[in-house]
Design brief:
mainly alpha, 250 residues, two-stranded parallel sheet, 9 helices, 66% helix
Length: 250
């Protein structure tokens, strides 16, 4: 009887140990699963596309684009000045300065070279128009402006030669008739003669102003020369600039 009881007790002890061991295994398994779950999150799906990294723009590319932007801005300013006929003036904003600024950045820029060429051509066009009108002083001014833009332009020399030829052809020698010079010697002269003399000198003054001509007065005496000068100067809107020579014209 005692042996059976001991045998029964041994069987119950073994079952209890197996149950305890099984519980321990379950607890350990759960613990391991929890730890693994906390330590290793779910992996992303295998079909998810990889994230592409955005590469920063190289500094060299920014530096290359900067001059191009500046050139485009200068071209806009130059074209605007050309439309306003601000070719070389005012000094603070004119087409020539903007085109030269472009060439300082890009010496081979064709737009800037063509722009300067157009400036020269425009000045020469104005100069030719003034030459045809015998406004030689104004024509000379436009030639100077053209040379300022490009002193080596061949067309400038051609127009300058035309101006000089026209000047030589336009030279006039006016010989005062005796009735005009004698009027200065007569103490009592009628009004009709005075009006005729004034009209004579008025025509000379108009021609001088229209052509902006240089005047050389040839007189037999200083007194006569001064009288001629004053007679013309009275008909001028601006002070007459003339040279007096005591001689007779060649």
């Amino acid at each position: 009887m005692l042996r059976q009881f001991n045998s029964f007790e041994s069987d119950q002890s073994r079952k209890a140990r197996r149950l305890t061991s099984a519980r321990t295994w379950v607890v350990q398994l759960i613990a391991v699963s929890l730890v693994a779950s906390c330590a290793a999150p779910n992996a992303p799906p295998t079909n998810t596309a990889p994230i592409k990294s955005v590469q920063p723009t190289p500094k060299s590319s920014i530096k290359e684009r900067a001059p191009s932007i500046e050139i485009q801005l200068l071209l806009m300013l130059a074209e605007n000045a050309m439309q306003r006929d601000a070719l070389t003036e005012p000094e603070s904003d004119n087409a020539l300065m903007h085109y030269r600024a472009i060439l300082a950045i890009d010496p081979d820029n064709e737009d800037a070279k063509e722009g300067i060429h157009q400036i020269v051509e425009q000045y020469l066009e104005w100069a030719l128009s003034e030459i045809d009108s015998m406004a030689f002083a104004k024509a000379s001014l436009w030639l100077e402006r053209a040379a300022l833009a490009n002193p080596k332009a061949p067309s400038i020399f051609a127009v300058a030669e035309r101006l000089e030829l026209k000047r030589r052809l336009a030279r006039r020698t006016i010989v005062l008739p005796g009735w005009v010079t004698s009027s200065s010697l007569l103490p009592n002269h009628d009004d009709a003669l005075m009006r005729a003399v004034e009209s004579f000198f008025a025509d000379i003054a108009e021609s001088v102003q229209q052509h902006q001509a240089k005047v050389i007065i040839y007189a037999l005496s200083d007194e006569e020369g001064r009288w001629i000068y004053q007679s013309v100067n009275q008909q001028m809107t601006e002070r007459l600039r003339a040279t007096l020579q005591i001689d007779t014209p060649a």
